[in-house]
Each structure stands twice: as structure tokens, then as C-alpha cells.
Amino acid sequence: MKRNQVNARMVAGFWGKDLKEPNNWYAMNVVGDTAEIRIYDIIGWPFVDADTFLNELSNIQQNKILVRINSPGGDVFDGMAIYNALKDHPAQITTRIEGIAASMASIIALAGDADKRQIAKSASYMIHNPWSFYGGDYREAEKAADLMKRLAAQLAEIYADATGAKQADIQALMDSETWFFGKEAVESSFMSNVSDKGAAQTAKFDLSMFAHAPKSTEPTKRDLERTLTQDAGLSRSQARQLLHGGFESLATQDASDDKAVSAVQNLLNTIKG
To answer: Does pLDDT of 184 surpass 80?
Structure first.
């Protein structure tokens, strides 16, 4: 994918994120004799991209590295590059899932040494088959499907090597999009032990694209947009305008927008009871 503003917005939109939000969820710091890497964001450009990660990782001289993870996943190839770079690093690697490690983040979590893969008791771990977007005729569809099958087999092999499970059993779990919580991930041998340390800072993710994601207690932007279009009768553009610009952004002289303002007011009154 070309790295331009249009594609950056497309990737951010898929994850329900706004590029205007501060990108402060990824950082490398030194704490005593340990280099601490925090991955609290989407894997891959324009968020935690492999190029930036590998450049910074190559400068780490400490003999211990702690990778703190709270990520819903992201780009397969960037994730694989990050996983391999951590596996190849001479330092002792500890990975700690502090919130969520889903999709490619679950692979990165396996880069920790066999007895140094931690998960908070309230955190979650998810494995599934990789996804892809493509355009073209049936020949392109067949190529995409073949690539997805090969990538899925590669990921299943990594999971199997880490857990000692049969690759066919792992593939079945991936086919079903399987979630593990806290000690369940340890009991299934993905993680080695349960940590009492959860996420120090909260990073919110839209997990609505996953089939079996745990329900969040807070609505995502997609939830709000759906409510505004289906319950308040706003158009999609009006809903997005409201979410990005606030209630006053709809208060214009345009008659259709006046109706939209009225609809939102009625919806808010209904919610307040």
C-alpha cells in the first residue's frame, strides 16, 4: 500500500481511529537496566510500523527488554517483522499483555522468552485467520485466497511451536476466532504466567470488526454513528459531521440540517428519559 494521506485515512477509518488523535501510544524508554517498549496501538503504518520499530530496536543496548502490549493487531507483514526482530535480539525478552493482544499482536506477544510471556488476569488474547482486501476478477480472488491460506498456515505454525499443540488444532481455533482471558491463555500455553499488572494507560479500540469480541461498556464511534443514522435518522455524512464537529456543527441554515438537529435533540431526550 502506498504511504499517502488517502491510504492513511482509509487504514485509520477501518480501525475507527482519527489521525488527528495524538500518536502517543507507542514508545521506547529505558527503566534501570531494562529497555521498555510500549505497543498500545495498531500494528503497522501509519501507527506502529515495522520500519520505525526495527530502527529503534537496533539501538537498544540493554540486556533486558520488556514489551508491554495493548493492541488489537494490524498489518500481518509489519507484525511478522516485529516478531522476528524481537526473537532475533540478543536481550532477554519479556512480553506482557496489559489489555488486549489480538490478531498480529498475539503473534508479537509470543516473541517473549518461553518463561517470560505474561498476561494480566483481566487481559485478553485472540487468534484468528488473517484478512485481506483486494480488487479484481475471480483470478485475483483466487490469488488472494491462496495467499491468505498460506499466511494462516504460517501463523498457525508459530502458535503451535509456542504451545506444543497440533497445528491442525490451532487452525481450528483460528477458524473460530478464539478469545482467551487471563489464565485461560496460560492454561492453553500461549502465555507462561499471569501478571498482576494491567494497563497503566487506557487505549480504546473499536473491536466491532471481530465476530466474537468481548462487549465494551463504552460505545465506539461506529456504534454512535449507527445510532445516529438508524435511530435519529441522520445521513451518514451528518452523523460523521456531528461526531467530529460536535452538536453545533449541525446547527446551520440548511433546512435538512435543521431537521437533523431536531432529530438529535429528540434522541438525546429519549436517552435522558
So the answer is: yes
